[in-house]
Sequence to fold (253 residues):
Amino acid sequence: MGNKQENKDHKKEKNEKEGKEEERKASKAEAEKHRDERIESTGQLTLDENESQHNIHLITIIGEIEGHDNLGGSSKTTKYEHILPQLAAIEDSQKIDGVLILLNTMGGDVEAGLAIAEMISSLSKPTVSLVLGGSHSIGVPIAVSTDYSYIVPTGTMVIHPVRLNGMVIGVQQTFDYFKQIQNRITGFVCGHCKISKPRLEELMMETGMLTKDVGTVLVGKEAVEEGIINEVGGIRDAIAHLHDMVKKIKDDK
Fold:
C-alpha cells in the first residue's frame, strides 16, 4: 500500500515538473516570437541577457528617415513617429538603463531627423551611437546626439548642405529659409561634437570630392580626426562603453 502511494506521489510530481517545463518552453517561445516581431516592425529590442544585468534599449536608424510624407513600399525607412514615442517611454521607464543607437542611414527628412536628434540628446539615460555602413546628411546630427559615438573603420559620413526636392521659388525669402535650416543643423552638430562651425561649413561646401554635388565623404578614422565622432570601434566597443557608463551612474548612486 505504501509503495503504491509513493509511486502515485512520484508520478504526480513528475507530471507537475513536466507541466512546468512545457509552460517554461511555451513562455520562452512566446517571448522569442514577440522579440522577433518587435525587431521586424520597429527595429528595436531590449538587451537584457548580459552579465551586468543592465537593460540596454537598442534602436536602429536604418534606410531613409521618413518625415510627414510616406515613402514608397520598396524603400527601407525609419519612421520618426515610431522613434519619438519610444524615446519618451525610455525616459519615463525605470527599467531601461541605457540606449544604444545603430545607424546605417542615407539621411532623409530634415525636420524628422532633427527631432530624433534633439530627443536623444535630451535623454537622462546614458546613450551611445555606432555608425555602421553610413550616417549621411541628417544622419550626422543623430550620430553626434549621443553621449559617446563610434564609427566602424569602413563606415562613412556624407557632409553636405541642405537641399530640397521639387520646385523652389527663387526669391530671397527662400534662400533665407535655407540658411536658417542650415544654421539649425550646423549649430546642433557643433554643439554636440568637437568640430568647429567654420570647418563643418568648409566640409559641406567642398567641390572636389562629389562629382555631381558639393560636400565631403568621411570614412571611419577621418570622421574621428575631424572631431565629429569620438572613436573608431565596433559593436563590442559600443556595448562595453555603454555598460561602463551605466555602471558608473549606478555606483555613484
User: Anything to note?
Assistant: The radius of gyration is 24 Å. Residues 31-36 have pLDDT under 50 and may be disordered.
